[in-house]
Amino acid sequence: MVLYGIDLGGTTAKIGCFTEDGTLLRKWSITTDCTKQGRHILPDLARAIEADRSKNQISLEEILGIGLGLPGAVKDGLLLERCVNLGGWGGFDARKELSERMSLPVFAANDANLALLGEQWMGSAKGCNDVVLVTLGTGVGGAVMIGGHIREGCTGSAGEFGHIRVCEKEARTCGCGGHGCLEQYASAGGLCYLAERALSEHPLCPSALRDETLTPERIFSAAASGDGIAEKILDCYADFLGRGLAAAGCAYDPERFVLGGGLSGAGDALLSRVRASYGVYAFPAIQHTPICMAALGNDAGITGAARLVLTSAAR
Ligand SMILES: [Zn+2]
Q1: Using an 8 Å Cβ cutoff, are 130 and 146 in contact?
Q2: What is the Å distance from ligand 1's center to 179 Cα?
Q3: Taking 90 as the threshold, does the pLDDT of residue 115 lie above it?
Q4: Residue 206 C-alpha to ligand 1 middle, in angstroms?
Q5: Does the pLDDT at position 314 exceed 80?
C-alpha cells in the first residue's frame, strides 16, 4: 500500500509517494498555477498523481489516500480563508474536490502542522508526543503537538509563534499590524535587519559584511569565520528567539523544540546560542528542554501530509 503527500506552496507543489512505514519512494514537484484564482491547482495535482500512478502501475486499491498541506489557517481539514499567495485560491472544500477527481480519500491540514507531523514520524522528533516546531524562514511560524495530536486551535492559529511579542520598543510595524513581534527579528528579513543595525551601531568595527549585500547565508558564514560583528548579530538573533521559545515553553512544556525552515540550516553556531539564550529566559522547570534542528528539510511537508492519511484514517 502507498500514500501520497502534497505540500502546496505559492510557487511549486511538492508531491511524494510513500510506503506505510514512511519510506519515501519518489518525489517531484510541479509548478503552482496561481492564475484565475488558482482554478487549475487541483486539476494539475490530480493529473500529476494520476500520471505517477499509471507510470508505476499502481491500482486505486493500493493507495491508502492523499494528504494535502495548505499554506493558510486550516481547521478540521477546511481552509478558513482564501490564500493570498495562491492567487486568492480557497473558499471551498479542497479535500472533497480532489477526492472526487481521484476517487480516493483526501485529508488536508496546515503546512506547518504537517511539517511537525513529518518530523515526528520520520525526523528529529521521532517518538515524541509533545513537540513545539518553530519555522524560521521568510516568516516565522510553527506548530504544536500535544499528546501526539496536532493542536490547530479555535481559529487555526495555534503555533503562530512569529507574533509572540519579544520587544517593547519597536517602531517598525509587523505584517500582523503589531510591533516587536518575534518575526521582525527571527525571520530571514529580521536577521538582515539585525545585521544592518549592528553595522550602523559599530561604525568603526571592521566586518566582511560591510562590503556585501546582506543575506542570512553571508551572515552565518561570516560568523563561522570569526567576524566579530557577525557573531554579535547571531547573539542578538538568538536572544530574541530564546525569548520566544521560553514563552512557548511556558504554554506547552514540550519534550523538545524543533527548529525548521530555511534558516535552520545554519547549524551549531546558531543552535548553541539559541540553547544558551533559551536557558536564560526559560522557567526553571523547563530550562533543559532539548532544542534541535529539523531533520527532513524540504521533505517535512510531504512526509507529514502522507502521515496525515494514516492518522486520519485510523480515527
Ligand atoms: Zn506580528
Answers
A1: yes
A2: 7
A3: yes
A4: 33
A5: no
Ligand 1: centre distance to CA 49 (Å): 37
Residue 187 C-alpha to ligand 1 middle, in angstroms?
A: 11
Q: 194-237 pLDDT, tens per residue?
A: 999 999 999 999 999 998 899 999 999 999 999 999 999 999 99
Dist. CA 169 → ligand 1 center (Å): 14
Could you identify the residue written with the cell 521559545? 245
Distance, CA of 199 to CA of 255 (rounded, Å): 38
Distance 181 CA to ligand 1 centre (A): 5
Grid cell, residue 241, equals 528567539
CB 247 within 8 A of CB 232: no
Task: Work out the burial of residue 37: count CB atoms within 10 Å of its CB; fewer than 13 is exposed, 13-18 middle, 19 or more buried.
Answer: middle
